[in-house]
Specification:
By secondary structure, the chain is of the alpha+beta class. Helices cover about 45% and strands about 25% of the residues. The protein has twelve helices and 18 strands. It starts with a helix and ends with a helix.
Amino acid sequence: MEFLHTIFYTIIALGVLVSFHEFGHFWVARRCGVKVIRFSIGFGKPIFSWTDKLGTEYAVAWLPLGGYVRMVDEREDDVADEDLPYAFNRKSVWKRMAIVVAGPVANFLLAIVAYWVMFVHGVSGVAAVVGEVLPGSIAERIGLKPGYEIVAVDGESISSLQQLQERLVLRIGESDTIRFTVSPEGSRQELNLSGSLGEWDVDSKNPNLLRSIGLVPDYPQLLPIVGEVLSGSSTERAGLQVGDRIISADGIPMDSWVQWVEYLQLRPDQEISLIVSRNGENVTADITPESFTEEDGTQSARVGMGVVTDQVLKWPEERRRYYSYGPVEAISKAAGKTWDTSMMTLGALKKMVTGLISPEHLSGPITIAKVAGQSAEGGVVSFLSFIALLSVSLGVLNLLPIPVLDGGHLMYYIVEAVKGSPVSERVQVIGYKVGLFLVMGLMVFALYNDLMRL
């Protein structure tokens, strides 16, 4: 069922992106006087199609991995005399440039619309509070400490964990100084901490940006609720039952499962007095953890108790961040967000080409499908955010000057505009073959990366 859920939302996402992209080409082609033969969403044999009064066939094909707009063009087909004035190749170079760039522009506009809806609806997040700093990490070297809330990175204000990760993405592969502005929890004081990123490496198979710099966010913890009682264990002898909520141990409040485990592990063979909540009433019990030796030789303790894992974890209200904008202000915010995302995508591509980022971070269709399903589970705002990010990525990638992509055609037309004559057929064919090889190679490599992450 989960597989079908993922496939469904992947098709929805790709369908929306491809439809907008191809509609951009289609709409501008019509405005430039070019006759469109077919507007297709998907490749292969059409599932269904219809034709309008201008002779354009609209089709939805069975392979939803892209789409195309087929225009009247003497370079591709024999064209009837009456259609020659409407041929793509007979239009001015400026009109041809407008038509090829319209697809990526449509993707950027889609992203702006998606972000606008998000910002008007309201976006929620959680404060970027440090929960743990890993020993010997970049975070420790910089001076981050548990309880600090990160409120800015390199002078750019942030208000949530997601925004923190977005700022870190811009710095992947770099080794110079990074600056965090932090506010110790419960304080209005702000501290500026900075340090070198040094040899910052992100695991391509498990790309956790925050953990890669040694920062573990302060996530909600599992409550100490008994989910399993092992036969013959200390828990069974103490009379504890599944569903008991541990309130305190030796008079010390137990707020999380981790706190309870750490407490008992330090007390092998020592009796612990518990107060547990059972069916709305407080019950007392005494439990003695059994000592045992870990594999590394250290002494520890256990009680034969499991935790309820399917708890609904909630962030404390004081950690929640919520912001929204009016319809007019949201336009500029959405445009700014689209621009920032475009620059982030371009920056990542540049770092891959120059070797600052491993190409192993390149993701393919499997990762896209997985994220589509996960974002849909997060609700409308989460799915819109995914659509916007993917739409920007599609727009940026299509503008790269690689033949077979829109950017490659645009490059040829710019050369034509400068030199006053079209690029030779031979050069275009060679460029097409090289571009096709590059694109297919990247697709295969991205798919390989996806498979290695499974």
